[in-house]
Amino acid sequence: MKTHTSAYKYAFGLLIACSLFIIWMNLAVGIIGDSDDPANLMYVGVLAIGLVGALMVRFKPIGMMYTAFVMAKFLVIVPIVAIGMGRHLDGSTPPLATFIILHLVFIACLFVAGLCFRRAAAEERLSDR
After folding, report:
1. Does 3 have pLDDT greater than 60?
2. If DSSP codes are grouped into helix, strand and coil, which group holds residue 35?
3. Distance from C-alpha of 17 to C-alpha of 6, rounded to nearest angstrom
4. What is the pLDDT of residues 54-82, one digit of tens each?
């Protein structure tokens, strides 16, 4: 298994950077409400999906692609649930536009990581021939 392509390294780095940024924001101030708001546990779920997914697919590029895409899909759901819970009305969550833009940045990072993993999988298939 050749996973040392530049596309794989870039994708893995982007995935780790996005995950660390989510952890840092949650521990520092909390993305939804305060840092001790239970609604922030939704992000722990997203990160758990990434960790379990990566272990299940043994860090192979095609599986990591699906893992990154699933993480991005769940990050689409998090702000919808938070808004449905009325968290944007209590004043402790950032303004709605900022909240949405922040999630779009996270989703875009994970989506780009998924596309890079897809490219790494294609490069791996070509090198196996």
Report:
1. no
2. coil
3. 16
4. 999 999 999 999 999 999 999 999 999 98
CB 74 within 8 A of CB 82: no
Please give the pLDDT value at position 31: 86
Q: What does the alpha-carbon distance between residue 2 and residue 62 come to, in Å, rounded to a whole number?
A: 12
Closest CA to 75 of 123, 25, 8: 25
End-to-end CA distance of the chain: 13
Retrieve residue 32's tokens.
């939804």
What is the pTM (predicted TM-score) of this model? 0.89
Alpha carbons 129 and 117: distance in angstroms, whole number: 19
